[in-house]
């Protein structure tokens, strides 16, 4: 239905406009029935629908819905198509329940593995998180249901999340923490964005002009509206001025009155309120008009998709002597309370009432032909090493061909609302694994956890399968992988450290009582481990398969390109094993030299391909300027400096056997204006100023050489002359002012320098 939104706004009173800027209750927006503005319903996500039967009644029960794997698991699939299908399924369930906006995806970066909400987030890498988030948004919104990308921004801990001030430098904020939001917002065109509770560099996210206006609206062109996380409001009028349209949930009539009074007093321009209302109405009508009365979906098909997704997300971390997949005729001991009572999702606002739940024990019994025994092994309610339970488990394990231990983190170890303080599993489970492995060499550990854990027992287990929080079909999916019905193809979307002390943010997490300093800067996740040359427990992008792959060739369609051009990269990979399988080809870019500090290499492309035994595939990637650029804080934009870049391909961040080099020539200018402090290397990188910079730099060095020779002769010290052989190498990092006076060789005056600067700016049109 077509409406003239501006005409509707013209008919509204200030009070009616203000009313749209806050909710009606916990889950609905306010209607303006007089002119036909409806109320819409939103509800929690992101990996399933958490809708109360009556959105206006907080005591009503949550309706059953399909619980898909949480974000940590979904990202481990590295599968854009799969994520999009999950998004479409979420959209269908929203249509069936008359929900117009689902709150997700959550794309915050995993700065530390201690963050209690990491199970909900995709990755430590902003490119991977951005790509996963974009597909989630596209899938949901294809069904006419809105998404709300969260939590904007730099919300990377639960400790003091309502009040902590995140102190992060501009470059790190843009390259790491904001980069993850670009895909969902720009590529996915997310209809809404949810701001975070915390402050960023002194301003609450709900009233942060830089985030909500400069970046989101002006920089990225976001046309939808911004809502608060529930209760994440500080000053209502200030928030509206900064770009916050909707406060959720309803907090009483006072909030609306604040807006009305601000308009009437002149504190708030009514045009600002009108723009907010226009953004709100555009999304409200779009989602409301997409409603489909009586819509239904295939419940079994959605469960089957949840099972497929869970299996695709599982990461095979260890498989000595090809223990997996199991032969169905083998007898097995299934051990661990989690085999009967699976932990399939995290705690907090994303907690789903599943439409059904598959436990691993019955699924293994269905898959196996040999005898299957079960022992509880440990308690899920308390971490006490029960000798009777362990003895029973060990006795059972010794009597079977293999033992499968289901272990991981209980609900009490990780959840929204608090951060972890360690990376350990319960001591009772660790002891169980060691005791069982001592009597059964074919011991397999299947993990259920939302974030990395330490593994002091790793040498004891012959095989390890990371299942993450796999959703309602996690048990049947685990059986599918264990028995080879599905060849594992997941890869880690985060680094698993050896210990907590090895993690990048160890010294700066969770900060003090008022602020947290992101002291690790750009070096989050694998960027840190590679810079420090530290070997983690398992690297980013790592994951095994029941088959093997060989990386045979890498090609580029050009070796020299301007930053305005794109380069095509083709990677040839072969399945060299005896089973069909899927491989995730990962592409990294490494600058061979840079004028600024940069990570050793960064993920810039990935593709998941399915190959039959002996089959090859040529996987093609397209890299543009952004693949080579860093965020330049002088121009406050992305800048790809002239230089050689190595493009690397392989199965993980730690293994990149294929490399090819390209040279990128920058057409950009890395500063807003030439000044006396502009560096020679910056001018050397610009074709229009390179000749001048070289001449001025060489002239300055020659003057210094003559002076040095004079001193060397008077002092009888011939070694001084050798010093000037190195001067030219370092001179390029000096500012233009260095050519003036004695240290510049005494050949250039201040007046001459100012004239040079004016001519350079004229040449560059600045």
TrEMBL record:
<dbReference type="InterPro" id="IPR017853">
    <property type="entry name" value="GH"/>
</dbReference>
<feature type="domain" description="Fibronectin type III-like">
    <location>
        <begin position="583"/>
        <end position="653"/>
    </location>
</feature>
<dbReference type="InterPro" id="IPR001764">
    <property type="entry name" value="Glyco_hydro_3_N"/>
</dbReference>
<keyword id="KW-0378">Hydrolase</keyword>
<protein>
    <submittedName>
        <fullName>Glycoside hydrolase family 3 C-terminal domain-containing protein</fullName>
    </submittedName>
</protein>
<dbReference type="InterPro" id="IPR013783">
    <property type="entry name" value="Ig-like_fold"/>
</dbReference>
<dbReference type="InterPro" id="IPR026891">
    <property type="entry name" value="Fn3-like"/>
</dbReference>
<dbReference type="InterPro" id="IPR002772">
    <property type="entry name" value="Glyco_hydro_3_C"/>
</dbReference>
<dbReference type="InterPro" id="IPR036881">
    <property type="entry name" value="Glyco_hydro_3_C_sf"/>
</dbReference>
<dbReference type="InterPro" id="IPR050288">
    <property type="entry name" value="Cellulose_deg_GH3"/>
</dbReference>
<dbReference type="GO" id="GO:0016787">
    <property type="term" value="F:hydrolase activity"/>
</dbReference>
<dbReference type="Pfam" id="PF01915">
    <property type="entry name" value="Glyco_hydro_3_C"/>
</dbReference>
<dbReference type="InterPro" id="IPR036962">
    <property type="entry name" value="Glyco_hydro_3_N_sf"/>
</dbReference>
<dbReference type="Pfam" id="PF14310">
    <property type="entry name" value="Fn3-like"/>
</dbReference>
<dbReference type="Pfam" id="PF00933">
    <property type="entry name" value="Glyco_hydro_3"/>
</dbReference>
<comment type="similarity">
    <text>Belongs to the glycosyl hydrolase 3 family.</text>
</comment>
């Amino acid at each position: 239905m077509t409406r003239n939104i501006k005409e509707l706004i013209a008919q509204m009173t200030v009070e009616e406009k203000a009313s749209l800027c806050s909710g009606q209750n916990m889950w609905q927006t306010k209607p303006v029935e007089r002119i036909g503005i409806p109320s819409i319903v939103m509800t929690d996500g992101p990996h399933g629908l958490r809708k109360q039967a009556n959105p206006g009644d907080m005591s009503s029960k949550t309706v059953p819905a399909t619980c898909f794997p949480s974000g940590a698991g979904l990202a481990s699939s590295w599968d854009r198509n799969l994520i999009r299908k999950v998004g479409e399924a979420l959209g269908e369930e929203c249509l069936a329940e008359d929900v117009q906006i689902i709150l997700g995806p959550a794309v915050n970066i995993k700065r530390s593995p201690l963050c209690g909400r990491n199970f909900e987030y995709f990755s430590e890498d902003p490119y991977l998180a951005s790509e996963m988030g974009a597909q989630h948004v596209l899938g949901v919104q294809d069904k006419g249901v809105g998404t709300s990308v969260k939590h904007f921004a730099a919300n990377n801990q639960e400790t003091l999340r309502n009040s902590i001030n995140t102190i992060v430098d501009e470059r790190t904020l843009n390259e790491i923490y904001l980069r993850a939001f670009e895909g969902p917002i720009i590529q996915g065109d997310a209809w809404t964005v949810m701001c975070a509770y915390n402050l960023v560099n002194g301003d609450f996210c709900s009233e942060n002009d830089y985030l909500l206006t400069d970046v989101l609206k002006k920089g990225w062109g976001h046309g939808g509206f911004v809502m608060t996380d529930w209760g994440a409001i500080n000053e209502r009028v200030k928030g509206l001025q900064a770009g916050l349209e909707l406060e959720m949930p309803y907090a009483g009539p006072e909030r609306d009155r604040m807006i009305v009074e601000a308009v009437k007093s002149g504190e708030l321009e009514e045009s600002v309120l009108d723009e907010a209302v226009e953004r709100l109405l555009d999304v409200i009508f779009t989602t409301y008009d997409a409603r489909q009365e009586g819509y239904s979906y295939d419940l079994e098909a959605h469960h089957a998709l949840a099972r497929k997704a869970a299996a695709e997300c599982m990461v095979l971390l260890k498989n000595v002597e090809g223990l997996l997949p199991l032969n169905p005729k083998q007898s097995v001991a299934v051990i661990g309370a989690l085999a009967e009572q699976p932990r399939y999702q995290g705690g907090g606002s994303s907690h789903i009432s599943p439409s059904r739940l598959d436990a691993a024990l019955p699924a293994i019994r269905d898959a196996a032909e040999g005898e299957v025994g079960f022992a509880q092994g440990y308690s899920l309610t308390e971490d006490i090493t029960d000798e009777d339970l362990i003895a029973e488990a060990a006795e059972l394990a010794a009597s079977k061909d293999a033992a499968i231990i289901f272990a991981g983190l209980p609900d009490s170890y990780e959840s929204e609302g608090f951060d972890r303080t360690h990376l350990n599993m319960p001591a009772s489970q660790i002891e169980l694994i060691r005791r069982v492995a001592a009597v059964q060499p074919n011991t397999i550990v299947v993990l259920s956890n939302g974030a990395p854990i330490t593994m002091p027992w790793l040498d004891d287990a012959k095989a390890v399968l990371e299942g993450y929080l796999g959703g309602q079909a996690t048990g049947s999916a685990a059986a599918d992988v264990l028995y080879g019905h599905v060849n594992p193809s997941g890869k880690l979307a985060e680094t698993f450290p050896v210990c907590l002390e090895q993690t990048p943010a160890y010294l700066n997490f969770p900060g003090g009582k008022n602020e947290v300093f992101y002291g690790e800067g750009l070096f989050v996740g694998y960027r840190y481990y590679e810079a420090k040359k530290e070997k983690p427990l398992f690297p980013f992008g790592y994951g095994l398969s029941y088959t093997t792959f060989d990386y045979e060739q890498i090609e580029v369609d050009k070796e020299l390109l301007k930053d305005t051009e794109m380069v095509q990269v083709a990677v040839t990979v072969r399945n060299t094993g005896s089973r069909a399988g899927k491989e995730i080809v990962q592409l990294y870019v490494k600058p061979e030299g840079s004028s600024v500090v940069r990570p050793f290499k960064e993920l810039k492309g990935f593709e998941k391909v399915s190959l039959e035994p002996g089959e090859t595939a040529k996987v093609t990637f397209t890299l543009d300027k952004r693949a080579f650029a860093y965020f330049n804080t002088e121009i406050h934009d992305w800048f790809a400096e002239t230089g050689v870049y190595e493009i690397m391909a392989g199965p993980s961040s730690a293994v990149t056997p294929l490399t090819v080099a390209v040279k990128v020539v920058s057409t950009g200018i890395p500063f807003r204006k030439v000044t006396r402090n502009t560096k020679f290397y910056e001018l050397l990188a610009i074709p229009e100023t390179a000749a001048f910079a070289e001449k001025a730099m060489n002239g300055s060095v020659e003057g210094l050489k003559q002076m040095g020779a004079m001193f060397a002769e008077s002092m009888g010290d011939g070694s001084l002359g050798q010093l000037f052989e190195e001067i030219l190498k370092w001179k390029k990092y000096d500012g233009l002012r260095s050519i003036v006076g004695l240290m510049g060789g005494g050949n250039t005056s201040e007046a001459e320098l100012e004239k040079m600067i004016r001519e350079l700016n004229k040449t560059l049109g600045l």
